[in-house]
Amino acid sequence: MFIGREKELGNLNKLYTSDKFEFVVIYGRRRVGKTAIINEFTKEKPAICFTGVETNEKQNLENFSKCILEFVTKKPANTSFDSFQTALEFVFDLAEEERIVLVIDEYPYVARASKSLASTLQLLIDKYKDTSKLFLVLCGSSMSYMEDQVLAYKAPLYGRRTAQFKVQPFEFQESCKYFSQLSDEDKALAYGIVGGTPQYLLQLNDKLSIEDNIKNTYLNPASSIYEEPQNLLKQEVREPAIYNAIIVAIATGYSKMSEISTKVGEDTSVCAIYIKNLVSLGIVKKETPFGEDSTRKTIYSIEDNMFRFWYRFVPENTSIISRGATELAYSRIKPNLSDYMGAVFEEICKQYLWSLLLAGKCAIDFTDIGRWWGTNSRTRQQVEIDIMGTADKNTALFGECKWTNEKVDLGVLEGLVERSQLFHYKNKHYYLFAKNGFTKGCLDKADEMGNVTLVNYEDMVG
Known about the structure:
Layout: H1 6-16, E1 22-27, H2 34-42, E2 47-51, H3 57-73, H4 84-94, E3 100-105, H5 107-113, H6 117-128, E4 134-140, H7 143-151, E5 163-166, H8 172-175, H9 184-194, H10 198-201, H11 210-217, H12 228-236, H13 240-251, H14 257-264, H15 268-280, E6 284-287, E7 299-302, H16 305-313, H17 318-322, H18 326-333, H19 337-358, E8 368-375, E9 382-392, E10 395-402, H20 410-420, E11 427-434, H21 440-449, E12 452-456, H22 457-461
Helix pairs in contact: 4-6, 9-16, 9-19, 13-14, 14-15, 20-21
């Protein structure tokens, strides 16, 4: 089942029609759907698709040779080229007469085993780029390798690519396409527990309740998701134990560098290096209050929902899960689900505002949005604004998101208006997002003010 990715496929197909040499780099975290995009793109196109494995140069060369020769002869081949240069030159020659797609998937595995491969590709691209119709695709899951050894300024292949795609997890709206039979509320919960990574979305069954899905995946030692975060870390980083400790600290509420450092028992300088790597992997995100650059106020949170859910609930329940006490483990998770979903709902609301902006339907033509927190100078209390965005020095929007079963009342709107007075914008627009609607008092006041938009969650699902 292939879902979404229309933009990526559209761009790839547009490049394909150029009928001249193209070199596309596709990269992104494991399980995010890179290979699925490539498979969909190469359907019914003449294509040589080779996937590197974590082995030596000889084995990868033999596998690569088989892919090339089977493409040419349409039957199994047992011979092999004597080098990657010879094999690649053969493909470049083939593509002088017809458009051919050459995919090298898991490129980092091949390039690490064959140290001269990048330089060889550089040499052949420079030699054939004006005469060959080859459509070359290098794909990789090792984010650091692809960014440092393929895309970076000092990399041999720098300046040769004609396009690159960093494949990201789906946003909420696209994720919903996997769950046609879930209720609207359960779609948000599903997104909250596995995020937008296609491989994780496929682990959920939309014929079952969210409770049963949690039990079948996170609370089942035999499921593929149960050990997924730790397995991914082992593939991506050295010393996964320290990374694990840092993610657990962040997932359980330690958000400042000093707090994380104390919790983990490592110096802040050491933690900073590990956290930087987690940010580059898309697992952790770094935030400062919207519109501010002060590193003193920097906080960290888990960006990927699958990691966030797993590290929030699984480690503390590992002992009882391993003993098969699924019901007991779930009974400890259930009371915290609504609170956990607060941050997820905020992210869904931000994505909704971006979709409004891109469709030309947002009340404020903002340039960026984010979360703001700080001290109310009048009351000396810490306050927070869920969503804030600015269009110019005179215009801003302020948003509040409530994932509660109660209707949002007038007090929520008045509180948001009061907090917005900490900022001296002439034109202000307020967005309130509610899981279950608004009270009459809130509806009446919003109508009276004229600069308030009330959004029901059911209207955001589509």
